[in-house]
Design a protein that fits this description.
The complex is a heterodimer of chains A (281) and B (293).
Chain A: H1 10-36, H2 41-45, H3 57-66, H4 73-104, H5 110-119, H6 129-138, H7 145-149, H8 156-167, H9 171-179, H10 184-195, H11 197-212, H12 216-221, H13 230-237, H14 247-267, H15 269-279
Helix pairs in contact in A: 1-14, 3-14, 4-8, 4-11, 11-14, 11-15, 13-14
Chain B: H1 12-38, E1 41-43, E2 50-52, H2 56-63, H3 65-99, H4 104-111, H5 118-128, H6 135-142, H7 153-181, H8 185-193, H9 198-209, H10 211-228, H11 230-236, H12 248-258, H13 262-292
Antiparallel strand pairs in B: 1-2
Helix pairs in contact in B: 1-13, 2-13, 3-7, 3-10, 5-7, 5-11, 7-10, 8-9, 10-13, 12-13
Classes of the chains: A mainly alpha (281), B mainly alpha (293).
């Protein structure tokens, strides 16, 4: 039965119309960027800008991917991919094992470690910019993948998420495993990991986007263009002052920077929503 | 909450927490301690050594008109981002909730900006508003308004607010939609039977029942505006013109990295540290309360 508050007739049409209007506004910047990435610089500087795709799609994307400005975009995308996957896999791995230790073992410094991990929530990169840079420079990790990844792999959120998940797993499973002679490592690999599969996947989606979209950190520690990631590298392409730049190539680069995380969100929509809502609990 | 059954092992748990703790110590606590330490020192004019100056860096900051302005800028910026993004998202969520189960396609088209990096959001919106070639800047020109965010501080602020709010709508939309869907239908139908209009039902039943979600999103959005919008500001305005979009986080960066004023940057870090601490406590207190519901 239809609920009586669901609108019918033209009220429902108005609702749809409102949503479509909202979506048009939200999608507008993307549409313009897509169009601009298929035009020539000349099309852009002589008004009005065409609102339908031009014929220079391949040319612009080829220029971006293989020549770029200081470094080809494919190289920056490869750097971004290494950083994003490193951060994602690193965060998941170290959070899984530390949550496992905190939930399934009793040891003297347990709650001390727990609070230490909790406190990292209060220390985002943005508030410790200069000293963290100094630590990385001291360890000679500037312009390296380890430097891009390591400072970002600690995760209080992921640790809490796995801790909560482990708390809901019945104690009988541990007892059964013990009866079967399974030690803690066996139990973790054969029982806990398979049970955490969906949560790991959901977290993967959220963390991949987080990793791919990093800006400030790569900006500080990758001084060589060869190590730039695409999200921060695009800044170097933007005009400073009145200088003219190839906007179609910049827009193609912006689209390329969006494709991996947007594809991940859309193709794994339900996992994404699950991950987003759970990681905030 | 504690597990009743656990494993006994003398060294295994330490090995398991070691990677997390090592990263935490080296990249979180050590730098944070360093920031606190540096905040009470000042290099001498020749840069040869640093002298202990107590709270002088802080004292200087609070008398510095640029820093005080940055506080005001941050307040205006985060209030606007939160207000624009949350109200737009609530409006869309209410519409999607009315459409019901068939809103799935709409949801997909509304959530993708979440995946866009703040810096890329900045590039997209900057392109629309480029004074010479931007589509929207030109449209404004047709109405006789000449837009130039690289000269006009107010316009710069509007642009960074739009770009930052746009990116955050997806997030707020998903949480509002989940909140709306958890409100019992029967409650709203009962009010409808009593003849309450849509807007009356919304303000007297739906909105109050959404308040836990709203409060949660309020904190999340303020944290977002404070810390995650650096990319938007750095790509569009670089903090300018005349520091009109220099929010606190941007200033830590520009004073510390560009201006090389380490003592001041460290003192600013410590102030931010206290702000994040406060916001985190608010967030967790609220979550504790939510558990009791």
């Amino acid at each position: 039965m239809e609920g009586m508050v669901e609108k019918r007739g033209w009220g429902l049409w108005l609702t749809h119309l409102g949503l479509i209007a909202g979506i048009c506004i939200i999608c507008y910047p993307l549409y313009i960027a897509l169009i601009a990435s298929t035009l020539t610089q000349a099309d852009l500087v002589t008004p009005p800008m065409p609102l339908l795709p031009g014929g220079h799609f391949l040319e612009n994307y080829r220029d971006a991917l293989f020549s770029g400005m200081s470094v080809p975009v494919w190289k920056m995308m490869a750097n971004s991919m290494v950083m994003a996957l490193g951060i994602t896999i690193g965060k998941i791995a170290i959070s899984l094992i530390s949550a496992y230790a905190i939930v399934y073992f009793r040891f003297p410094l347990r709650s001390f470690f727990f609070w230490m991990i909790f406190l990292t929530l209060m220390l985002p990169v943005e508030v410790r910019i200069v000293p963290t840079y100094e630590v990385i420079a001291g360890l000679h990790l500037l312009n390296s993948y380890s430097g891009l990844i390591l400072p970002l792999v600690a995760s209080a959120t992921a640790t809490f998420l796995f801790r909560q998940l482990f708390m809901t797993i019945p104690d009988e499973l541990v007892e059964a495993a013990r009866v079967d002679g399974a030690g803690p490592v066996r139990f973790f690999l054969d029982i806990l990991l398979p049970l955490s599969r969906t949560n790991i996947a959901a977290l993967f989606v959220i963390l991949f986007i987080y990793g791919w979209n990093q800006y400030l950190w790569p900006l500080l520690i990758t001084t060589e263009p060869e190590m730039n990631t695409i999200v921060m590298g695009i800044k170097q392409m933007l005009p400073t002052g009145d200088q003219t730049v190839e906007w179609p190539v910049i827009m193609a680069t912006a689209i390329l920077a969006m494709v991996p995380p947007v594809v991940v969100v859309i193709s794994m929509r339900n996992l994404f929503i699950k991950g987003l809502i759970e990681s905030e609990k | 909450m504690e597990k009743r059954v656990f494993f006994r092992n003398r060294w295994l748990p330490y090995i398991l927490v070691a990677p997390q703790i090592a990263v935490t110590l080296v990249f979180f606590f050590w730098p944070a301690g360093e920031a606190i330490y540096q905040s009470v020192f000042m290099p001498d004019p020749f840069g040869l050594k640093t002298n202990y100056v107590g709270l002088a860096n802080f004292q200087f900051l609070f008398t510095d008109p640029y820093y005080r302005n940055s506080f005001a800028t941050t307040a205006v910026f985060s209030f606007s981002v939160t207000a624009v993004s949350m109200s737009a998202a609530l409006w869309l969520a209410v519409l999607a909730d009315r459409v019901g189960k068939k809103a799935g396609g709409y949801t997909t088209l509304l959530i993708w900006p979440y995946a866009v990096a703040p810096a890329i959001a900045g590039v997209l919106w900057m392109f629309l508003f480029m004074p010479s070639i931007g589509v929207l800047a030109r449209a404004l020109g047709h109405f006789g308004y000449s837009w130039n965010h690289s000269l006009n501080g107010g316009e710069a602020m509007i642009l960074v607010v739009i770009a930052s709010a746009w990116k955050q709508i997806s997030y707020n939309f998903l949480f509002f939609l989940a909140g709306l869907q958890s409100i019992p239908r029967s409650l709203i139908e009962a009010a409808a039977i009593d003849g309450a209009s849509f807007s009356r039902r919304f303000w007297t039943i739906v909105f109050p029942l959404l308040s836990p979600t709203t409060f949660f999103l309020l904190v999340v959005n303020v944290v977002y505006a404070f810390f995650e919008t650096f990319g938007v500001i750095h790509t569009i305005t670089g903090g300018g013109p005349q520091q009109s979009t220099s929010i606190l986080v941007y200033k830590v960066f520009s004073d510390g990295f560009v201006g090389q004023d380490l003592g001041s940057s460290a003192a600013q870090s410590v102030i931010l540290l206290l702000l994040v601490g406060g916001l985190t406590i608010i967030q967790f207190r609220y979550i504790e309360r939510r558990v009791q519901y």
